[in-house]
Amino acid sequence: MTARIPLTGENAPLVALLGRPNVGKSTLFNRLIRSRRAITHDRPGITRDRMEGTVKRRGERTFLLVDTGGVTPDGGRAVRDAPEGLRGFEDEVLAQAEAAVRDAELLCLVADARDGLTPSDERLASFLRRTGKDVLLVLNKVDGPENEDALAAEFHSLGLPFVCCSAAHGHNVRELEDELRKRLFPVHDRHAAPSATPATPVSSEPLPGPLPAKPAAFTQPVHAAGQREETDDEAGADAAPLRLALLGRPNVGKSSLVNALLGEARMIVSEKEGTTRDSVDVRARINGTDIVFVDTAGVRQPARVTDTVERFSVNSSLKSSSKARVTLLVLDAAQGLTRQDKRLVELLNERKTPFMLLANKTDLFKGDARRDNEKELQEALAFIPHVPLLFISAATGRNLDKIVPLALELRRECSLRIGTGLLNRAMAQVLERHRPPGVKGGRAKFFYLTQAEKDPPTFVFFVNDADLVRPAYARSLEKALRALFGIRHAPMRVNFRSSHARKSGG
Description:
The chain is an alpha/beta fold and 506 residues long. The chain has 13 helices and 18 strands.
C-alpha cells in the first residue's frame, strides 16, 4: 500500500469552523478563502465532509481554514428531529468535526445571532472550552453595526471573545480575518515566514454524541491542506502538486477509493447515493509525489437531476475535472459500462481531457467471472484505445499502487514538446510508407508539420487541400505519431490546414 506522509512546508496553522447546521459556516468559509468552493444553500445539512481552504492576503501570513458539517446535539440526533441532509450521517459528520478540532490551533464557534443563544450553542461552547484551545465566537448574520449590541447581548453569558459579522453581505469579515491572524500569530511575528507551532493538547472528551471508532488499519491522520481552485500553471507547473479529480456516477466508490489511497477515513462513505456533495481537495504525498485528490459528487443523467443542491454538486464535479491535471473516471465493474458512464467517457474524450478509467469493485468477481467481466469492459471501451484502463478494488487494495505512476506518465505525455525538425523527419518516413489515398482525382500533398500546443499535444499538418485528408487517414497519422513519440495515453489533437505554399521550418 502506498504511504502517505506530511508535506514539507505544510505548517500553516489551521482554523476550524464549527457550529449547528445552517448557521452560515460554508458561506463564511467561501468569503474568507475568496472562492465559492463550498456549496451553500438555505437547506440545513448540506455540508458533510470537511473542506479545507487557504486564507491569503498580500503582505500577511497565510493560514488554513476548515469547514465542517453542522453538529447536532443528542436531542436532535434522532432521525425524526435531525435536519434532512444529516439524517443517517450524524455519526460521520461528528467524526469529521472531531478530526477538525484535533488538527486545528484555533476554533471558531459560529452561531446564528438572529436565532439567539440556543442550547446547542451552549453545549458546543462548553465542549470547545474544555479542549484547552483558543476559541473565538463568531456571531454570524449581523448585517450592520447598528444591530450588533442587541443581537450579541445574550451571547455574553458564554464568556467567549466574539466578533459580529455577516458572511452573506461581507459586514466585518475583514475584521474577523484580522482577529484570526492576531490570535494565530504573535504581533512581532505577524509578517514572518510560517513556522511550525506545537499542537495544543486536546481534551479526550468526544464531541456531543457517539462517534464511530477509527479502524486500527488506518494511519495517523495527516493534515491535508486545501487550496484555492487554481491551475498548476498559476503556481508554477513544476512546484504545484498533481491534481487528480475523481469523477463518476453516484455510488461507484470514489470516496472509498480516496480513503484507501490515503490510508484514513478522510471522506464519508455510505451506500446512499449523493453522500458526497462538495468537491473536496485532499492533499498528500505518495511515494515522493505531491498529490491533490479532488473527490467529487456523483454525476447522474441530466434528466434525473431535479434537486437544486444536486445540480450544484454536478456542476462542481465537472468544473473540478476541467481544472485537474488528470481525471480518474471511476466505473462500477459489477454494473459494466452504463449509458451514463459512456456519456462521461465521450464528454472527456471530446474535450481532450487527460483521463484514465478505474473499474472499481472487482473484488466482487472471482476466477473466470472476473476474466469475463474484464474482457467485456475492454471490448465496450475499444473506441478509446489510448485511454488507460485499470481494474481495481478500493476494498482489497488491488492495483491501487499503479494509479499515481500511471497518472504521472499521462501528465508527462501531455507536457511533451517535440522539435519541428524531428517532427518533419518523422512525417517524411510515415508518408513514404503510407501515401495518402486519392480523393476525387486529387491527392493530399503534405508540406510541413509543427506542434502548435501542448496540454494536450496539438499537431498541425500543412497540406495543399485539407479536404483531401480523409478521417481514416487522419486517424492513421495520429496512430503513427503516437507510436513514433511514445504518446500512449495522452489525448491528442491532429489538425490539417490548407496551404498552397511550402512552409519552411527547422
